[in-house]
Here is the input.
Amino acid sequence: SSKSDRYVMSAHRRIPFAWCAPESLRQGIFTSASDVWMFGVTLWEMFSYCEEPWVGLTGRQIMIKIDREGGRLERTEDCPRSIYALALKCWSHNPEERPKFREIIHLLSELRPKEMTASRGFGEPGWLRLEANDQITIIEGGPESSTWRGQNKRTLKVGIFPSSVVTAAEEGAPPVGTPRISHPIRSSFLHLSHGDIDPERGWGSPDQKEEKTTKLRGGNLSPPSPSKSKQLLQLARLSKSLE
Here is the structure.
């Protein structure tokens, strides 16, 4: 940082130890980079529901923790991992490695939690209660998991729920994580099924395995139209020629 971008605190001033960067605690130096560190702590506070950072530790203990031992505040249960990853960048020990605020603004817009809609009511004990069309902010969840965590924007309650009871924000979209297309047959672009939000336009089963291709010939699956079959065959031949 340039000299115009730094402030050296004079003696006998109160210091907010729990929010300060290592260089601020060591030398009383405050810069835009140390402000970024503080922002990371503030971000942590937001998702911890205003818990006090490093509660119970003295200023000296905090300095040893973050400067010598490399300790960092732990991710809270309701903080998305992507947001916590940003906080960790803000807490880089080297001030030069911390993101600039203009970068943080861009990153936050990209990391905004997804909004989903409850496709039906759900009220199992111990789970997040949902009513049809409730808007849910996703805290934790992905295609690999059948249990997600989020906040019901109507009740403001936070909890876990089955991913199968929510859909993407777009009207008519299928539940997130629902297979839409089968894996291609080995060494080709040929698929045994395609899903669609309109059942009339879909065919086959997305979980169909390549080993069961005989079922397609046996009529247990609805094959694509002749024109689609011709296109898929051409793609399969193209794939084979590229090997």
Summary: Residues 13-111 form a domain with the Transferase(Phosphotransferase); domain 1 fold (CATH 1.10.510.10). The two ends are 53 Å apart (CA to CA). Residues 172-179, 210-224, 238-243 have pLDDT under 50 and may be disordered. The CA atoms of residues 39 and 61 lie 21 Å apart.
